[in-house]
Automatic annotation (TrEMBL):
Residues 187-269 form the CbbQ/NirQ/NorQ C-terminal domain. It comes from Inmirania thermothiophila. This is Nitric oxide reductase NorQ protein. Residues 40-174 form the ATPase dynein-related AAA domain. One of its GO terms (molecular function) is ATP binding.
Amino acid sequence: MSFMDEFPGAIAPPPAEAPYYEPVGDEVAVFEAAWRSRLPVLLKGPTGCGKTRFVEHMAWRLGRPLVTVSCHEDLTASDLVGRYLVRGGETTWVDGPLARAVRAGAICYLDEIVEARKDTTVVIHPLADDRRLLPMEKRGELLQAPPEFGLVISYNPGYQSVLKDLKQSTRQRFVALEFDYPPEPLEARIVEREGGVDAETAARLVRFGRMTRNLRGQGLEEGASTRLLVHTARLIAAGIPPRAACRAAVARAVTDDAELVAAVEELAGTVF
Ligand code: ADP
């Protein structure tokens, strides 16, 4: 199956109900102002801290369809823009997800953009400045983005390396929003609601999560994200004892190192 087949033609309309999102600061207002001003947005922050959920919520709020592309090292500009395909002996042009999003005036979310091949930045640059044009080189066409189109990219500065840094020429086109794990009471509310556990269990999980984040730099690349705490809560809600849930959803998920797994489990033992 090719990449294109995973993105069939139709773009889903926004959901009827608001995707649940707890605002942390002024991100809702800034995103909305950026979109109304036709400025693209860069979301910075560690994995699992609410960036995707935020974009889902904002697309709903602005009444726009959302097209999400998870970028990976094999993703090329053609994967985003489109290509000619031979089907039943005929050559037809098939729009890629970015071209479809531009045509539909959707919000296009390119998750972990630095993972993609370098040629992808070439196609997003003219889209991300005043021109708002998508060059479709193989078709010899320049696609003008309608006012409703919004470009959003995300990037995890924690994984930063010389090879995977976002270039100034790219980042200086975007309005940047910084994400981090939500403050403790808010994170507890999210874990309670998304994980289906009581307030006390959620508060303990969040305390545990914060402890694991302090192990960052001491061998752990990253501590438990909000996403992992939600996963742990779901296991607990499904009947798994808390310590076993912390082991499976957090300790073993964040590291392969036996000593670090034991250290994370020990932290779980102090709250459960
Ligand atoms: P990211 O895109 O940053 O990797 P996600 O948006 O997928 O992370 O967040 C992971 C999970 O954490 C979400 O599915 C949701 O359950 C929860 N979450 C994190 N932050 C929030 C928030 N502010 N409001 C609601 N849910 C959140």
